[in-house]
């Protein structure tokens, strides 16, 4: 533990599309300070440091030396890929397979589109090189590495002025020797070039997926390392010299040095933070099983957290179409990675999503969004197509005079007019009915997202709590919970910046994995023990550089398993207690049968089970900041009431669906306050809607707990 | 949406929920399946039919199935008799002459009940890696359908929720790859069960009356949108002729003719003029031909249009019986997909003058099966493997045809080399693009690909493909893509093979596929010299080809276009 006595403050910085959010937490008291500055796309580090500086300025008592560490979530890697600005990279593979990246999966991203395009490979064909060598599926050498040919390839790479090289040979997950020799030869000739070996980055079978992951790693590494270096330099300039940690796609953080070397682990850094925030909050409040729901201006994201841990997937594509449903062809529109990513479903439904009538006369919402410019009609900035925000305004759920804490007023008449012309009139509905329809249709898509992460993964929504945040999340959360069958909702304090807080409540996590591919009835358990021991040694080594973590690392072990003959593995936690022996193995196998039955509805006790990958995560614990308790306690919330206004609820007994609804000021709600819906709770960056049939209780920390009355 | 009885919100909610049910069926099937063809290559489809057997919702996987499947399912249920079905039952069928396609595509259909009331059917189709017959992977060239494998009329495989063991053992005993096939059948059962659960949840929420009502509305809605899309199409009669390169027994081409008539009533596809059926594997069943036409029509419409009964009713097909596009019993059918996909290219070729910006030039337009099997010396089990290979896509009016990609009704993934070698006794020795295989054009066709299989043990290998006589056609002065090559390599010598053949391989022998490139679009000498240069630098086309076919001279030293020499060469055109 290297925390200095005064090092009790932590800073989290989350760079989003429009805003850069900063959060400062006093680990001792749990007091949170936030800052928001405009994102600076041309040089994101400037926005980063502006957010940090603003935090330091807000509280004079916090000097830069008092910062224990800084955690950062960034889209710099994803943006480089989406915008085609990755570093010039070479690719080296086995002779005969130069076109692995060009051919990819040989599929089209959309079924009926004759004008489709395949995504351009991140390495152009002239920078793809072959080396004579070959291993078989057992990792045994069929053709030895041709050193003379390799030397020529290295010369060609040297002439091509690349910044990075990715190496992926067939079956290297079984035997990394040839890849390592190639890596060494390139490093000797080109000491400044970044080299990624597939056997280091993701030693798992299926060559295209491994190659794609490795190429992404190497081609963003020069960008990420330069970027992080500039952040560190700027932090030093303002006197912050403590460690910089980076959020990974899987929800753990890792040191900037590790991120520079293996950036593929952080491509989905931003979205992970929200899931981590929800997980941490749920756990702290005694709800380890929650569904995280983050709805902003253009998209909504849902993810499932079980036992305090977000669900993790390895079936992911960067820059691909939204991953939902089978995800079958979503991957064909982007670049697959096989590193762990928080399993979230992202859909094009946000406050700015536009409602429209299609050629068959159906009311539709999204995926088009009005974005920040022109924004919803009610912003009065030139938008003329009705959005979800406009519909919420028409329904009385938003206050035209108190948007962004009163900094901006909304044009209700314009919103009503847009809903009428574009939706209500064509469908012969009243304006309120049409607005309600817009919200309900958007909710359907969001409920589907909630179902995809829960029911479809075999989890019953009734066992979960919905943690909703993001600018638009709390306005929809209660209704979504009702439709998805989730009995409890939690709206955290400061829902608009909850994501940034997620950066400060996670541990240092470093992933290690190794391929096994052997049947459970054929393996000697000591081999498993041996492999885990080796992963543990490597994990301890990696842990040494993470100075913010306290004490000894903790190890989490899991084994990816399947029925022999299947292709998709289920990850089964491997118990640490006891020796790895025959009894241990039989418990593990039983856990797999159970997991399979839960996921797919059947078990095959007579079928051989196969152990595919061993995973070991080295966890360096970071102490959680305490949560700050509210000072005022009372069951009476009446002092927080700002007034009443008519709000449309389909459940209302009124024939027009209107209910006179009390409006509360969240900042004045005391701990213990309790009341039933309908109710509206306002705070500067967010509005929470409590539907009839639900009861709200403010907890000791100011979170809104909302439960169904039944 | 003008009647008061339709709540537009409920409509959209139920529509999404039904689609989601089909999607979840697909996920359950894929994730729990065993064969590479199903689990990795996704050669399967799932759908929900209402109680009147109208197609309502389907999961995106392979368009070929979605077109043919909608004909097969109602026929199979009627044949078995709705009255003979009860809760927990599922029927199995693959009969080509009962609305099916080739024998490998086996459908499992389960009636869905809500408290003992029949509310619809879930159905899933999987391309099984082996169904018996004369060659491993069941893709060989034979004279009669009986030689192609087990023919399964609609039979009750699952009775009141229990698998009928006797029946299952009988089916399985005809099949080589028992372990994988057992797993795939189990995955199909899981898929139907998942679908039934989801459908029941929807009905629990809305009640059966609303459920039925909104299904009618969903179909009518699709009908309205399809009609609006049809109205946008140019009216007229459009024709094209072409052929499949051989039939698998004779070297005679199999002539195909397509006439597309678009008028106010809809779109009529007529294959009159195509050759009579053959005693060879190239015959397409009516369901396959229907599927080709349905795909073509769908590809010309709004990408967002749902596909269900309301769409299919606009697909009118006239294919004379006994014709290679509508074969009758007992013609063999395993290669019917080769005919099917070639029809797609012909339909787009016919429509090209009227819809020059909507269509693409000729694609590889063959399924291009590669099937093999034998005894695995290590496990002692009989193994079978099947995959289909991509080729070049046709160029479009404003863009090149993508390289190495599946075309039209087919969108199956490749089998990863490492997965294939881990599970089957084969070594893939090459998998790469074929340079200079593109059809030249102002926009060029995509490149074909090469895949070589080396067998360390004896094996039986079947090629069931096409395009070895003539490459895919170009449009508007665009040129043809390369022809395909199928070869046996032994002792270093290469021997050409037919596009439809089965060979016995000795250890160390290699089968090599080089699939055709796509056709070009527009005159090659109009191609942007910069684009030609980029292809040369990438090694996709040679400098010689750039000069000869595109009239672009690339300076071998500067690696730049020699503008003067290019202008001179092109001015001579």
Task: Characterize the structure shown.
The complex is a heterodimer of chains A (710) and B (573). By secondary structure, chain A is an alpha+beta fold. Chain A has 16 helices and 35 strands. In chain A, strands 13, 14, 15, 20, 23, 24, 31, 34 and 35 form a 9-stranded mixed β-sheet that branches. Chain A has a 6-stranded mixed β-sheet with strand order 3-2-1-4-11-12. In chain A, β21 (353-357) and β22 (363-369) form a beta hairpin. In chain A, α4 packs across α5 (177-189), α10 (388-394) packs across α11 (412-427) and α11 crosses α12. By secondary structure, chain B is α+β, with helices and mostly antiparallel strands. In chain B, α1 packs antiparallel against α5 (178-232), α3 (63-80) packs across α6 and α6 (286-299) runs parallel beside α8 (336-351). Chains A and B meet through α3, α7, α12 and α16 of A and α1, α5, α6, α9 and β14 of B.
C-alpha Rg of chain B (nearest Å)? 24 Å
> Can you summarize the main beta sheet of chain B?
7 strands, antiparallel
Poorly predicted runs of 5 or more residues of chain B: none
Helix content of chain B: 25-40%
> Helical stretch count of chain A?
16
Number of strands of chain B: 20
Largest interface: A-B, 70 and 88 residues
Number of strands of chain A: 35
* Helical segment count of chain B: 12
Classify the beta-strand content of chain A into a percent band: 25-35%
First-last Cα distance of chain B: 58 Å
| Whole-number mean pLDDT of chain B | 94
Main β-sheet description of chain A: 9 strands, mixed
Coarse shape of chain B: globular
- The first-to-last residue Cα distance of chain A is 48 Å
The total number of structural domains of chain B is 3
Mean pLDDT of chain A: 88
CATH architecture of the largest domain in chain A: 3-Layer(aba) Sandwich
């Amino acid at each position: 533990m290297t925390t200095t006595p005064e090092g009790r403050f932590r800073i989290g910085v989350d760079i989003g599309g429009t805003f850069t959010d900063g959060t400062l937490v006093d680990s001792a008291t749990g007091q949170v300070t936030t800052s928001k500055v405009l994102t600076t796309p041309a040089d994101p580090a400037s926005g980063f440091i502006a957010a940090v500086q603003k935090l330091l300025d807000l509280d004079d008592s916090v000097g830069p030396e008092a910062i224990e560490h800084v955690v950062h979530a960034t889209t710099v890697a994803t943006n480089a890929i989406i915008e085609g600005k990755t570093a010039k990279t070479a690719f080296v593979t086995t002779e005969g397979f130069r076109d692995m990246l060009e051919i990819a999966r040989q599929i089209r991203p959309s079924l009926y589109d004759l004008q489709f395009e395949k995504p351009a490979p991140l390495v152009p064909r002239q920078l793809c090189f072959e080396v004579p060598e070959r291993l078989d599926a057992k990792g045994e050498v069929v053709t030895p590495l041709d050193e003379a040919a390799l030397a020529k390839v290295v010369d060609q790479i040297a002439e091509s002025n690349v910044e990075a090289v990715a190496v992926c040979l067939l079956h290297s997950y079984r035997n990394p020797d040839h890849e390592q020799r190639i890596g060494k030869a390139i490093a000797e000739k080109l000491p400044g070039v970044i080299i990624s070996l597939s056997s280091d980055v993701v030693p798992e079978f299926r060559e295209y997926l491994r190659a794609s992951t490795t190429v992404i790693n190497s081609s963003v590494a020069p960008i990420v390392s330069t970027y992080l270096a500039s952040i560190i330099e700027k932090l030093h300039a303002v006197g912050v010299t403590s460690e910089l940690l980076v959020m990974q796609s899987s929800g753990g953080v890792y040191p900037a040095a590790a991120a520079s070397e293996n950036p593929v682990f952080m491509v989905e850094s931003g979205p992970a933070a929200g899931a981590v925030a929800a997980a941490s909050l749920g756990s702290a409040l005694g709800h380890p099983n929650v569904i995280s729901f983050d709805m902003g201006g253009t998209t909504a994201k849902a993810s499932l957290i079980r036992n305090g841990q977000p669900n993790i997937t390895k079936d992911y594509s960067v820059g691909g179409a939204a991953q939902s449903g089978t995800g079958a062809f979503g991957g064909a529109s982007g670049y697959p990675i096989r590193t762990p990513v928080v399993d979230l479903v992202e859909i094009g439904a946000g406050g700015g999503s536009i409602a429209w009538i299609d050629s068959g006369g159906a009311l539709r919402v999204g995926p088009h969004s009005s974005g920040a410019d022109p924004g919803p009609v009610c912003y009065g900035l030139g938008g003329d197509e009705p959005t979800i925000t406009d519909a919420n305004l028409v329904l009385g759920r938003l206050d035209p005079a108190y948007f962004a804490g009163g900094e901006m007023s909304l044009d209700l008449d314009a919103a009503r007019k847009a809903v009428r012309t574009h939706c209500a009139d064509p469908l012969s509905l009243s304006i309120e009915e049409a607005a309600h329809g817009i919200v309900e249709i958007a909710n359907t898509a969001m409920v589907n997202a909630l179902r995809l992460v829960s029911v479809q993964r075999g989890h019953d929504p009734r066992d979960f709590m919905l943690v909703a945040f993001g600018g638009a999340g709390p306005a929809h959360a209660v209704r979504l919970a009702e439709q998805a069958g989730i009995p409890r909702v939690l709206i955290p304090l400061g829902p608009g910046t909850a994501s940034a807080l997620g950066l400060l409540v996670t541990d240092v996590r470093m992933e290690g994995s190794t391929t096994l591919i052997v049947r459970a009835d054929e393996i000697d358990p000591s081999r498993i023990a041996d492999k885990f021991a080796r992963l543990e040694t490597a994990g301890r080594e990696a842990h040494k550089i993470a100075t913010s973590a306290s004490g000894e690392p903790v190890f989490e072990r899991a084994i990816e398993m399947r029925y022999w003959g299947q292709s998709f593995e289920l990850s089964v936690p491997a118990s640490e207690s006891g020796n790895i022996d025959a009894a241990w193995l039989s418990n593990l196998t039983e856990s797999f049968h159970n997991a399979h039955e839960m996921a797919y509805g059947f078990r095959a006790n007579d079928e051989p089970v196969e152990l595919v990958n061993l995973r070991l995560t080295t966890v360096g614990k970071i102490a959680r900041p305490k949560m700050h308790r509210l000072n005022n306690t009372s069951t009476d919330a009446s002092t927080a009431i700002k007034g009443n206004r008519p709000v449309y609820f389909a459940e209302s007994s009124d024939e027009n669906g209107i209910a006179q609804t009390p409006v509360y000021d969240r900042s004045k709600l005391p701990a213990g306050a309790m009341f039933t819906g309908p109710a509206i709770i306002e705070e500067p960056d967010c509005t929470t809607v409590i539907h009839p049939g639900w009861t709200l209780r403010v907890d000791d920390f100011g979170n809104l707990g909302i439960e169904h009355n039944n | 949406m003008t009647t008061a009885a339709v709540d537009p919100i409920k409509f959209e909610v139920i529509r999404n929920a039904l689609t989601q049910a089909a999607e979840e069926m697909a996920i359950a099937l894929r994730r729990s399946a065993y064969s590479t063809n199903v689990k990795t290559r996704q050669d399967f489809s799932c759908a929900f039919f209402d109680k009147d057997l109208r197609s309502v919702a389907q999961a995106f996987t392979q368009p070929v199935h979605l077109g043919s499947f909608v004909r097969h399912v109602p026929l199979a249920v009627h044949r078995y008799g709705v009255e003979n079905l009860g809760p927990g039952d599922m029927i199995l069928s693959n009969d080509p002459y009962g609305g099916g396609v080739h024998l490998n595509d086996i459908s499992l259909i389960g009636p869905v009940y809500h408290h003992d009331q029949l509310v619809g059917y879930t159905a899933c189709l999987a391309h099984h890696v082996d169904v018996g017959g004369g060659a491993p992977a069941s893709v060989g060239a034979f004279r009669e359908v009986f030689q192609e494998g087990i023919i399964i009329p609609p039979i009750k495989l699952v009775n009141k929720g229990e698998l009928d063991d006797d029946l299952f053992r009988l089916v399985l005993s005809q099949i080589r790859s028992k372990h994988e096939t057992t797993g795939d059948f189990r995955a199909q059962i899981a898929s139907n069960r998942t679908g039934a659960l989801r459908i029941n949840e929807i009905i629990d929420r809305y009640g059966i009356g609303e459920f039925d009502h909104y299904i009618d509305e969903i179909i009518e809605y699709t009908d309205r949108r399809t009609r609006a899309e049809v109205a946008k199409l140019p009216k007229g009669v459009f024709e094209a002729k072409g052929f499949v390169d051989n039939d698998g027994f004779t070297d005679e081409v199999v002539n195909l003719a397509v006439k597309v008539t678009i008028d106010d009533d809809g779109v009529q596809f007529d294959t009159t003029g195509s050759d009579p059926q053959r005693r060879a594997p190239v015959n397409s069943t009516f369901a396959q031909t229907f599927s080709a036409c349905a795909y073509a029509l769908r590809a010309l419409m709004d990408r967002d249009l749902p596909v269900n009964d309301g769409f299919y009713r606009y697909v009118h097909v006239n294919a004379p019986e006994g014709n290679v596009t509508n074969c009758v019993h007992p013609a063999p059918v395993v290669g019917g997909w080769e005919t099917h996909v070639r029809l797609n290219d012909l339909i787009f070729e016919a429509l090209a003058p009227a819809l020059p910006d909507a269509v693409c030039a000729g694609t590889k337009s063959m399924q291009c099966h590669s099937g093999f099997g034998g005894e695995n010396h290590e496990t002692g089990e009989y193994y079978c493997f099947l995959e289909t290979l991509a080729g070049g896509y046709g160029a479009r009016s404003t863009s090149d045809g993508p390289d190495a990609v599946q075309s039209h009704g087919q969108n199956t993934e490749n089998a990863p080399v490492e997965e294939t070698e881990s599970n089957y006794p084969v070594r893939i020795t090459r998998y790469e693009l074929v340079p200079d295989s593109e059809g030249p054009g102002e926009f060029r066709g995509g490149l074909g690909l090469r895949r070589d299989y080396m067998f360390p043990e004896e094996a039986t290998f079947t090629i069931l493909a096409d395009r070895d006589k003539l490459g895919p056609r170009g449009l508007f002065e665009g040129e043809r893509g390369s022809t395909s090559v199928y070869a046996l390599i032994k002792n270093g010598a290469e021997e050409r093979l037919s596009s439809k053949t089965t060979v016995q391989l000795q250890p160390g022998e290699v089968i090599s596929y080089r699939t055709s490139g796509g056709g070009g679009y527009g005159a090659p000498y109009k191609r942007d010299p910069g684009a030609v240069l980029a292809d040369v630098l990438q090694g996709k086309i040679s400098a010689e080809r750039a000069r000869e076919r595109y009239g672009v001279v690339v300076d071998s030293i500067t690696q730049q276009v020699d503008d003067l020499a290019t202008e001179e060469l092109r001015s001579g055109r």
